[in-house]
Amino acid sequence: MKSLQQQWLPNLDWYDLAEASLDTLLMLGGSMFFTLLLGLPLGILLFLTSPKQLLSRPWLYGVLSLVVNVLRSLPFIILLIVMIPLTLRLTGTSLGVAGAIPPLVAGATPFFARLVENALREVDRGIIEAMQAMGANLRQIIVRALLPEALPGLIAAATVTAITLISYTAMAGVVGGGGLGDLAIRYGYQRFQSDVMVITVLLLLALVQLLQSLGDRLVLHFSRR
Amino acid sequence: MLQLIQAYKDYQLTKGQVRALQPTDLCIQQGEIFGLIGHSGAGKSTLLRLLNLLEKPSGGQLLWQGQEVTQLQGSALSGYRQQFGMIFQHFNLLSSQKVWQNIALPLALAGNLDAKARQARVEQLLARVGLTEQADKYPSQLSGGQKQRVGIARALACQPPVLLCDEATSALDPQTTSQILNLLSELNQELGLTIVLITHEMDVIRQVCDRVAVMDQGRIVEQGKVEQVFLRPQHPTSQGFVAQALPEERCALEQQVSGLRIRLSYLGEQSYAPLLSQITKATEVDFSILAGRIDRLRHQPYGQLTLALQGKDEHVAQCVAQLSQAGLEVDLL
User: Fold this and answer.
1) Which end of chain B is more exposed for a tag (fewer CB within 10 A), N or C?
2) Cβ contacts (< 8 Å) between A120 and chain B: which residues?
3) Given the DSSP bridges, would you call strands B162-166 and B194-199 parallel, antiparallel or unpaired?
4) Which domain range does residue A142 map to?
5) B77: chain A residues, CB-CB within 8 Å
């Protein structure tokens, strides 16, 4: 008697699936870490230098904004390839999980920074004015007012970014990055193994769903308005 | 204490410059409640922000205790601003922080108290504004009046000598407005706190201010003691604001009433003397009251009556003359 697995999932290799899932999580975790690390300061800088804000510097804002726009308009698949020399320098390899993280970070950081800028814009200007009236300096305004007030927006931004990163990781297969998306393309699409396709897609869906509901809960928890 | 000398403010817009404040002289005395009244766009908000240098004047001088302060930068500027508490129309509390955290914020920024002393100070402030029970709530759970009390407690946390009020009661209902104004008045007396407030309501000026400046189109068009500006407004803008506090009069003047119509203003102890009845009796003049108001200007009672005097012409003239002689302000309408 054929086992249930042979009947329904004839092509599925559990070891491959576990490895691909782990790769996806590693790419997601690693790139998310660096995206937050770089994107948050960049977003704050974008916000502060934009017109009529505390450090209003129109030319600096213009340059930063242009860089962000260029990186955002580049399709991720192109970014992945264009960045190979740089990735080699940074990680010593352009392959695997390590080879995928720099382009993932380069793709997601400008996206996240823009979302951070928008979240900070939502903070009431009157609060910044009140902080100035209390004699707060720039660092105090950012740390004690802007970031706490924008926290729900920042969490929402991080959630959206993480989900975007999941879809980016699907393309990391091009540089041998592995992951669930890669599995889906190589087995599910190229070898017509529909069972692999369905399972990987379901796993990705579950991951996205999990992240989104976690993000939503945190946003709700920190919303005080 | 605070003095502006020919200070003005220009704003750079895409379509050129706009002068929000014409060169202005202003002197704020220690311990007084000074009111700035004007319509929106009159420049009162800009003027208020010049005082704690939230806006830098485009020219002119600002003297604090006789020292020029317009050039202050960095930590010296922060230190200067900490001499001022400020409260706002929309309260501007941190929505992410609890009530006590909002009040502790300026103490934390100044950083000159340890945690224990800070907590004691916060409790003292909470008690003073009557919000001890609300310490662990978030601002969104409070009413407007309670939010403004938090704003006041926060503004006074570092014991500044001056409190700036930016339309502090404009978002509140009349009853809450009165409570907040009473609190400000008490704080002024208890702490010797100097208060500068801006408003577009003459009633706010009437209830708490010692002196007032009326602003129109970026300049101060009239200033002086409240009773002087309130009872004898000179500039049309001031007259408009005063009329706003006496709305019945215009209505009464539209009625066809025979006799000489006059407005009688009296202040202080005069308010309680039976002058009107004595004089009209003595001169054999009858009067009817068309409109009137008896109220308080901060500390002293005042009254304003619009009357129609009827009688023989010479009697009426005599009556008016005697009313003036008795020290009442008489305006023929």
Assistant:
1) C
2) none
3) parallel
4) 11-222
5) 135
- Decide: helix, strand or coil at residue B285: coil
What does the alpha-carbon distance between residue B150 and residue B138 come to, in Å, rounded to a whole number?
A: 11
Q: Does B84 touch chain A (CB under 8 A)?
A: yes
H or E element in which residue B309 lies: strand B300-310
How confident is the prediction for chain A on average, in pLDDT?
Answer: 90
Q: Cα–Cα distance between B273 and B268 in angstroms, integer?
A: 10
Of A166, A171, A147, whose CA–CA distance to A204 is shortest? A166
Bridge partners, B165 (sequence order): B87, B197
Task: Give me the percent of chain A exceeding a pLDDT of 70.
Answer: 98
Locate tokens 């706190």: which residue? B193
3-state secondary structure of B142: coil
Judge whether A137 is closer than 8 Å to chain B, CB to CB.
yes
In a domain, A2, yes or no: no
Return the ∠ at Cα A36 (arms to A32 and A37), rounded to 5°.
115
> Based on C-alpha coordinates, what's the Rg of chain A?
21
Question: Residue B81, CB half-sphere, CA atoms under 13 Å: how many?
Answer: 27
Tens of pLDDT, residue by residue over B193-235, are 999 999 999 889 999 999 999 999 999 999 999 988 888 889 9
DSSP chain A: ---HHHHH-TT--HHHHHHHHHHHHHHHHHHHHHHHHHHHHHHHHHHHHSTTSTT--HHHHHHHHHHHHHHHHS-HHHHHHHTHHHHHHHHS-SSHHHHHHHHHHHHHHHHHHHHHHHHHHTS-HHHHHHHHHTT--HHHIIIIIIHHHHHHHHHHHHHHHHHHHHHHHGGGGGGT--SHHHHIIIIIITT--HHHHHHHHHHHHHHHHHHHHHHHHHHHHH---
Tell me the residue type at B266: Y
CA–CA separation, B242 and B233 (whole Å): 7
Best mutation target, B12, B78, B87, B94, to test chain A (most A CBs within 10 A): B94
- Half-sphere exposure in the Cβ direction for A217 (13 Å, CA): 6
Helices (H), B192-271: 202-208, 226-231, 236-245, 248-254
For the domain that residue A123 is a member of, what is the CATH number? 1.10.3720.10
More confident residue, B80 or A91: B80
3-state secondary structure A92-125: CCCCHHHHHHHHHHHHHHHHHHHHHHHHHHCCCH
d(CA A141, CA B94): 11
Contacts of A221 in chain B (CB under 8 A): none
Q: Tell me whether residue A120 is in a domain.
A: yes
Of A88-97, B125-134, B180-189, the least confident? A88-97
Tell me, what's the ipTM? Answer: 0.86
What is the tens place of the pLDDT at every residue in A75-84? 988 888 889 8
Considering its fold, how many domains does chain A have in total? Answer: 1
A6 found inside a domain: no
Answer yes or no: is A45 within a domain. Answer: yes
